[in-house]
Amino acid sequence: MEKSWEPKILAFLCNWCSYAGADLAGTSRIQYPPNIRVIRVPCSGRINPLFILKALQSGIDGVLVSGCHPGDCHYLSGNYIGRRKFATLKRFLEYLGIEGGRVQFSWVSAAEGGKFSQMVHEITQEIKKLGPAKRFVKREDSRAIKFETQNSKDKTILK
Amino acid sequence: MMRRLDKRDFETFLESVMEECDLYAPVSLTEGVSVFKKIDHPNEVNFSQLLTQKPAKEIFFPQSEPMFNYERRGGKIQITSNEEVKRERILLGARPCDIEAISLIEKVFMSEPYTDLYFLEKRRKTTLIGLGCNPPLSTCFCSSAGGDPFLRSGSDLFLVDLGDAYSVELLTEKGMVFSKNKFLREADPEDLRRIKELEDKAFEKVGFSIPMDGIEKRLDLMMESFFWDRVHEKCIGCRICTYLCPTCHCFDIVDEGDFARGQRMRNWDSCLSPLYSLETSGHNPRPTTRERTRQRLMHKFNYFPKIFNRVGCVGCGRCIQYCPVHFDIRQAIIWTSSKRPRKPKI
Amino acid sequence: MSQLAIQEKIREKAKELLSKKEVDLIIGFSNWTLPLRTTPVFIRTPEGTESLIWNSFCENNLATYIHKFSRFRVGIIVKGCDARSLTALSLEKRFNPERVFLIGVPCQRMVDRKKVTKAVKGEILRAEERGEEIIVEGEEFKTVLNKKDYLYPSCQVCTHRTPIQAHVLVDDPVEESPLVEIHPGVNQFEKKTFEERWRFFEKETSRCIRCYACREVCPMCYCTECFVDDYRPKWIGGGLQPQDLQFYHIVRAYHQTGRCSGCGACERACPMDIPLTYLTQKLNQDVKELFGFEVGLNSKTPPPLSTFEVDDKGDFIK
Questions:
Q1: Chains near A (3 or more Cβ pairs under 8 Å)
Q2: Which segments in chain B show pLDDT lower than 70?
Q3: Structural domains of chain B, count
Q4: Residues B158, B16: one domain?
Q5: Which of A53, A86, A96 to mutate to test the interface with C (most CBs of C within 10 A)?
Q6: Does C187 contact A at CB distance below 8 Å?
Q7: B314 within 8 A of B228, measured Cβ to Cβ
Q8: What is the pTM for the complete model shown?
Q9: In terms of residue numbers, what domain contains C141?
Q10: B148-157 pLDDT per residue, tens
Q11: CATH architecture of residue range(s) A9-158
Q12: Which residues in chain B have Cβ-Cβ distances shorter than 8 Å to C152?
């Protein structure tokens, strides 16, 4: 079946604010595109820039990093340290030629279910316009590998 | 047998050769940087640099070589091995030091009973076309290392640049295959004289400056010498000398992939890397650059001659040209030849 | 002061330090076998100081040796960039500053030997520096070059050529104005589209042979376990796949954010002539713009990525 391309977006959400915000979006039944996959981290300051690069290299089309608002970090200053990292990383990636819209950052608090879903809508739209990630991707077809088991049932493994 | 190839026929000659074989020749990647690569078109060949950065061993012993691929299909795992070489190959434009180095590496990879299939396949199917060095560089010391800027041994064909043409010597059976090639004309009687002139000039330039004779015996006495405490100081432990060396042959085998598909690869490795000898326990028998520099020089000038009756260096001088801190292996050898091991004069 | 006079002063000071046993070892530069090049030397006796030299080919950053010789009391000959690297290293507590004596030389900018080699046809057998000229000689040529046209890009943009952190300066401080405002590589680059930028980066890094010379010459790369050797998680493979080469260069440059003194040693060491300083210079520019920080000027200011300000710029965050 011919399916039009759907972007795959990875979201690193901090446990205390953004992840809770995403949870709230879910319990409030706020709809947002299913293109997003979430990885929960203790704090946005924990994000190693290599995570973002590795995601881009694995064929992920976009990365969203979200943390607590400045001043509200559960660990007091994690998001401040993260902010500096993100600023330098974003500028560097754009300088190298990786489109600016692919890696995005936001502050989403635990009460902002609506904002989270809005972020997901926005980033999905932008990535759809940018197209699939072609630069820097190690294995083009590594995103989903199908293999048949002995029962001939199709099993799709996400990469 | 001697022939002549006019330079204006060079590209068409290569085209005729490329119809049946894959041609590997020096290619310029950017100004001042060239490597041996498979070429798609004769105009890519570039002899302007005497020595390419990466040596000719790359053709037989690539820096990163997939050994086999594996893939899960239908519940089973399928393995496809990669050592087969489909087409005959020609290595064009390797200098005598690089060709001599290949015969050194052959001793390691092709001696019974441990024959390396990947190397063997490529070597069997390759014809070597050497190119004489006129003129050699000031960093060349091939004649001190048992070689010569016009050494023919090891080449199947040997070219000498005479200005408007190449003189082509067909030396072996593989070389004689070219005797019917229509672009190789009769040699000019003057050619021999011109070649001798170039050879004499080159040999005078390279000379016999480095005392390699007996270095194996000298190093036998020097394993724990204070000499190593000083020689290693400026080495920063990068891998340039080993990767650009035509005779270095250490490698690492790694698997890359996931449970669905992947590859086993053989990559170049370097004894100068601290991780090279790091053991699982955490112990490292070569913890500092002192031990690693000693290892490199001992391997080249003591262990290798003991096993293979030849120093493990061909005097190409790449390590001298490209070392970021200007370590000069010729100086290290000269220091070993003083009457007794002593502190180098710095 | 002329280069010869500076050389004399360096020898004098080094001799003094060794004679008074204030240091165990002097790390400086000396001539060696090839023209256009110098080599690091390690001198332990006052007589040995006669081999110390100073000229526009002293391109290495000697701060890298502090890791290897940290158990000795060392005296190091430093240019502006080298001294800044050492300050950054002392902030990261990599050595005891009381055991290091810096002999500072205000730098007249270093000559790009690769550019000089490309400017002539044939091998250079002898090279001499005479004032503002470089005279290179081969078997069949003798050419005079204008030194100013052959300086390293990282030296052209440098505004910290005087090593103010040094314990002693052998010459008067130089006027700190750059020859060009923005690094030529960075300047060109910012005018390109995303596509063009990536193509350039891809093409240049495709030559990489993973020799790690850039990593080893850099004084700031001292991790005993580099990210390239990490196994769990495995960031990059060991071969020459272009994506691995790109990942390596992006991360190596990025790990220097807020730590790089712009000495250019990485670019000078690369055997495949990959322009690395256009990456590190961009990061230095950004760090200066975003956090007002320049490496090594103040031995108390912490590295920018290890600290924060409440009002840091964050308008790119939604």
A1: B, C
A2: 338-346
A3: 2
A4: yes
A5: A96
A6: no
A7: no
A8: 0.93
A9: 113-150
A10: 999 999 999 9
A11: 3-Layer(aba) Sandwich (3.40)
A12: none
